[in-house]
What we know:
By secondary structure, this protein is of the alpha/beta class. Helix content is 40%, strand content 16%.
Amino acid sequence: MANQQPCVLAVMAHPDDIEILCAGTLCRLRDLGWRVALATMTHGDCGSADLGPAEISAIRTAEAEASAARLGASYHCLDQLDLFVLFNEPTLKATVELLRQVRPDVLVTHSPQDYMLDHEQTSVLVRDAACGAPIKNVFTGAADPAAPLDHIPTLYYADPIEGLDALGNRITPGFYVDISATIDRKEQLLACHASQRDWLLKHHGIDEYLRSMRHWCEVRGAEVGVAYAEAFRQHLGHAYPADNVIGEALGALRP
């Protein structure tokens, strides 16, 4: 890797997506001395049944920052709007600039197939930004632009919610990471997003915010014989790194 201290950047659509999908793995990497950065496309402006966009955005940003601080990570937001995360030139340029500023060796983002388009569009944006960030002639228009990356980062997709695509088909993981030792910390990070318990209760009828996260990690863990696990797939298309860096660092598990 280019950096003496490896860096992993998790880019998801909304505050709390990272904690739900991959925070146990991020905790393990942080314990190994990795630099960890978290980023969301939005501030979560639609995430309330009672508060207006500006008020809930401020609350959710503070919750995301608190979670990142607890993890020992930096937090970044690309200032997009909920339900309007779009693959377009301005958002792609902002994503490229994020990668150039953070300079990750490893990227984690949403599954290309998921239950909502904000997640899927984020996945495509991160995939394309990973390819474009090292290209010298890609200009982001930032006021103080960072230099292009030295190489395409290694790219991973986290589980979609409940391991299903939009049509309810099961997504088969490429490998699993044992997070039994970090499940309690993962839960503590997710608990920082207190506003979402109320939102999900009112919008989805779900009142088991932390329990449902822990249950899904238990389901994935049972598939590979451990108490709790998170599942991933690696992007292995042409020009993207093929070494399984996370798997090598943490011990990839397979059924």
